[in-house]
């Protein structure tokens, strides 16, 4: 199989993202049995670090699956009949469809693609919706780059539906922006390994509240693989997983969580904000406005609107120069391009990529 330009290209897409050589080396360690003492000790090392990542004293665990599986687990384990899903892009709409396909009555509170979530409007619509068992939303809509005020939305949900469980998708911001599971009174939070965690795809990380697990224990038909009660019990009591996990990904996760703590989360968040500001300045200088309003700019994913610009040629020439950017997602394809500036990218590496992008744009007469 042949590939254009340099292979592998440096990935600046909204996931998967660049994986450091040290992480790849961790993945190459010998595979062990998932019921061995080695694996148990590995889980014991990961568990408190995951809690610190989510900022929770409650429950955290991993699933050998993508973040989309955690969507389904939250709905199947936490909702018997009726829930609400707030949508403003492709991925939040996908979570709503997950509820529908799981046989749950799904109340959709819909915002336009590119809109940030307005807490006041959410509160008003949730009050009108009548009782729901849970409310879910995506904190950073990767398809549009709209990053919403998570604590304000959580507070609005609590005012409107005080008895509802609260589900938050933090797929493209966890480890790239502040997240406070306990302080914001969240019941399920989920993320994927291939975004700000800067690991290969393959696992999801999840935080669960005591309140959620108490409700889930009363829910019949939770299924098997995504039964969060079974997963949490085995993780907490036995330091194991009910089924065979992606063992080598646990080595990588442990390595990365330790590395992030050495960097310091506040420093990591500041690095992501600085990269966002650098991309904004570059894109605005080239006449590529942000697709979302300034106050909703994502700290991890830039979605730049274009008009009369040959995105396909630009992306092809960039990948030929060793850097992969992304087209617009879904109905935005051909109308925008995206830069994923998260994970373990540095400002120096970002500047290098943008300098190459300058050369490519110059060659295209822009």
Question: How is this structure best described in words?
Answer:
The protein is α/β, with parallel strands linked by helices and 366 residues long. It folds into two domains: 10-19 and 264-363, Aspartate Aminotransferase, domain 1, CATH 3.90.1150.10; 21-261, Aspartate Aminotransferase, domain 2. It is 42% helix and 16% strand. It is built from twelve helices and 14 strands. It has a seven-stranded mixed sheet with strand order 2-10-9-8-5-3-4, sandwiched between helices. A three-stranded antiparallel sheet has the order 11-14-13, with helices on one face. A hairpin with a 4-residue loop joins strand 6 (140-141) and strand 7 (146-147). Helix 1 runs antiparallel to helix 9 (247-263), helix 9 (247-263) crosses helix 10 and helix 10 runs parallel beside helix 12 (347-363). It is globular, with a radius of gyration of 20 Å.
Structural class: alpha/beta
CATH fold type of the largest domain: Aspartate Aminotransferase, domain 2
Helical fraction equals: 40-55%
What fraction of residues sit in β-strands? 15-25%
Distance between the termini: 33 Å
Give the overall shape, derived from the CA principal axes: globular
Can you tell me the CATH architecture of the largest domain? Answer: 3-Layer(aba) Sandwich
The domain count comes to 2
Number of E-state strands: 14
- If strands are numbered along the chain, what order do they take across the biggest sheet? 2-10-9-8-5-3-4
Rg from alpha-carbon coordinates: 20 Å
Total count of helical runs of at least 4 residues: 12
What sequence of helices (H) and strands (E) makes up the elements? Answer: EHHEHEHEHEEEHEEEHHHHEHEEEH
What is the mean predicted local confidence, pLDDT?
Answer: 96
| Major sheet attributes | 7 strands, mixed
């Amino acid at each position: 199989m042949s590939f254009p330009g340099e292979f592998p290209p440096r990935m600046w897409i909204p996931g998967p993202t660049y994986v450091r050589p040290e992480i790849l080396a961790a993945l190459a360690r010998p595979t062990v049995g998932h019921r061995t003492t080695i694996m148990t000790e590995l889980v014991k090392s990961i568990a408190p670090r995951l809690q610190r990542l989510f900022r929770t004293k409650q429950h955290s665990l991993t699933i050998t699956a993508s973040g989309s599986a955690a969507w389904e687990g939250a709905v199947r384990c936490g909702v018997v009949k009726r829930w609400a899903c707030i949508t403003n892009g492709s991925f939040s709409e996908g979570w709503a469809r997950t509820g529908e396909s799981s046989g749950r009555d799904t109340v959709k509170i819909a915002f336009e693609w590119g809109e940030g979530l307005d807490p006041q409007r959410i509160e008003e619509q949730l009050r009108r919706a009548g009782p729901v068992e849970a409310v879910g939303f995506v904190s950073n809509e990767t398809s549009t780059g709209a990053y919403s005020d998570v604590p304000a939305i959580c507070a609005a949900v609590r005012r409107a539906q005080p008895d509802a469980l609260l589900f938050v998708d933090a797929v493209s911001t966890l480890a790239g922006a502040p997240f406070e599971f306990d302080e914001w009174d969240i019941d399920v939070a989920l993320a994927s390994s291939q975004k700000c965690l800067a690991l290969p795809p393959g696992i999801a990380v999840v935080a669960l509240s005591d309140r959620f697990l108490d409700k889930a224990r009363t829910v019949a038909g939770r299924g098997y693989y995504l039964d969060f009660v079974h997963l949490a019990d085995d993780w907490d009591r036995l330091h194991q997983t009910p089924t065979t996990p992606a063992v080598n990904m646990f080595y990588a996760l442990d390595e990365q969580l330790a590395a992030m703590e050495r960097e310091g989360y506040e420093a990591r968040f500041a690095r992501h904000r600085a990269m966002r500001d650098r991309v904004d300045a570059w894109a605005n200088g080239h006449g590529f406005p942000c697709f979302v309003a300034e106050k909703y700019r994502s700290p991890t994913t830039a979605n730049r609107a274009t008009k009369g610009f040959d995105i396909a040629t630009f992306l092809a020439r960039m990948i030929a120069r060793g850097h992969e950017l992304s087209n617009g997602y879904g109905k935005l394809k051909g109308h925008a391009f995206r830069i994923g500036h998260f994970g373990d990218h540095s400002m120096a590496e970002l500047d290098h990529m943008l300098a190459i992008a300058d050369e490519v744009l110059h060659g295209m007469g822009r």
